[in-house]
Amino acid sequence: xxxxxxxxxxxxxxxxxxxxxxxxxxxxxxxxxxxxxxxxxxxxxxxxxxxxxxxxxxxxxxxxxxxxxxxxxxxxxxxxxxxxxxxxxxxxxxxxxxxxxxxxxxxxxxxxxxxxxxxxxxxxxxxxxxxxxxxxxxxxxxxxxxxxxxxxxxxxxxxxxxxxxxxxxxxxxxxxxxxxxxxxxxxxxxxxxxxxxxxxxxxxxxxxxxxxxxxxxxxxxxxxxxxxxxxxxxxxxxxxxxxxxxxxxxxxxxxxx
Length: 257
Ligand SMILES: Cc1cc2nc3c(=O)[nH]c(=O)nc-3n(C[C@H](O)[C@H](O)[C@H](O)COP(=O)(O)OP(=O)(O)OC[C@H]3O[C@@H](n4cnc5c(N)ncnc54)[C@H](O)[C@@H]3O)c2cc1C
Prior knowledge:
Layout: H1 22-27, E1 31-33, E2 38-44, H2 47-55, H3 63-71, E3 82-90, H4 91-97, E4 104-108, E5 119-121, E6 130-131, E7 144-145, H5 149-175, H6 180-183, E8 192-199, H7 201-211, H8 225-241, H9 243-251
Parallel strand pairs: 1-5
Antiparallel strand pairs: 2-3, 3-8, 4-8, 6-7
The site of flavin-adenine dinucleotide has 10 residues, from helix 7.
């Protein structure tokens, strides 16, 4: 017997007590992913371009100039270049990215005009779940304990059940004629969405300095594991397109000029 409510996570509807619901019917329709895919969809500029801008076309070396500008924090020439990424990420990661305001542009899939895709993020088994510090004041990646397979599975059951329920509620609201912009308010932070983001080399270095926890960082940063995976993908593209700038950034303690 199916009811039209789906507010419980157990197998009984909490509204009418019916044994089980469209929530179960929806269950198979939601796709769960542990991927955080990022692709470069546009790029302009090079180390030579940065050096040419700094020298105003006069002759000279590129590598030496880049090293010197990085060391002395002559930062403006590093703003001449552009890279755009298309990312398919859960909302909680997108929210962290949106905090970067300077030299960064965003275009986000709006759930006011289109329906949310039935896709949610679940942490992969290698993503640690239990911090050693019970107060959670220090959640660096190396400050977590290992989890058992059973603990991982139990956690994933809770996360996926909640997502199934909320996505099902979302579908129900839309079926009842509620607007997309109101129905979306039930969606959780694991909801996967699409964002395009563009940086110049300077703003990208600033992002990488904050969102990657590296022993080579002059200033410590403790990013969340998921946003760090995204930053590491960005960093690969950065190293590919601006190798001299990337090396200078690295040798300079990974501080943006
Ligand atoms: C580990 C970590 C934990 C975080 N925790 C939280 C949190 O708990 N809560 C929270 O709200 N945010 C949090 N953030 C976000 C953080 O506060 C920054 O908003 C984010 O990292 C972007 O950094 P930014 O401001 O330097 O970058 P951008 O916004 O790109 O700015 C670049 C630079 O421009 C300058 N600048 C930009 N805006 C201003 C301004 N208004 N006035 C003066 N100078 C400016 C600064 O020099 C800044 O470094 C966290 C970030 C990290 C990495």
